[in-house]
Amino acid sequence: MSLATGQQHALQARDLLGDTKIRPVIEALILSDAALEDISEHTLNITGNKISKNVLDMYRHYFWNRELLSSGEWFSYLEEHPNGELLSQCYRQGLEYALWRLGYRVELSQQDVLRGVFHESAMRFFETTTQSNTRDTAFTAKMWAENIFKATEELNKTGDEVRQVLDELKSVAIKLGKRDISSIDKLK
Fold it and tell me: What is the dihedral of CA 30, 84, 42, 20, to 10 degrees?
């Protein structure tokens, strides 16, 4: 009834339907399942316009309610939408992906990225085991396995930068024929 009775937040939400700058941002963020507070903050950062949580709540309620449709219904609807591919990926991938696609720089920790690479590679590797054993399948499995091993190596690093520098120096020294380096002082 808030829209029918002309409630302020509902009318402001309705006016967003015609805003070609803000509407794509809030729709992508709503589909990414972001919290209203985050949508408000990121909309300000991306568009320069502050939209209150109350207005966003009304917009979500009346015009872009993620909970109203099932996943299949959303994907079916988005097939015909002009930005359907982007919005479908925002629905699937979540907030960080949506922000990236909207041009907002998302800071991710190296550990999170490596865990993501490890997980995706592991799942893709297991997926290849269900396929027929062909040359292409073998190469694909090998590629995913290499990604798993590289991500595992990176995740297992101690994070001790001095130790990493020493390891690098050891590898250089080994190439030069010096093998007895146990500290930076002995390197002199």
Answer: -110
What gap in Å lies between CA 27 and CA 59, rounded to an integer? 9
- CA 64 to CA 57: how far, in whole Å? 10
- What pLDDT digit, counting tens, does each position of 76-111 carry? 999 999 999 999 999 999 999 999 999 898 787 888
CB 10 within 8 A of CB 3: yes
Whole-angstrom distance, CA of residue 184 vs CA of residue 169: 9
Tokens 């590679």 — which residue?
121
SS3 32: coil
Handedness of CA 92, 96, 99, 105 (dihedral sign): negative
Helices (H), the chain: 8-16, 23-31, 36-47, 53-62, 71-78, 84-93, 95-101, 110-128, 135-156, 161-176, 184-187
Count of residues in the chain: 188
Give the integer Cα–Cα distance in Å for 25 and 7.
Answer: 23
Q: What is the pTM of this model?
A: 0.64
Q: How far apart are CA 188 and CA 181, in angstroms?
A: 10
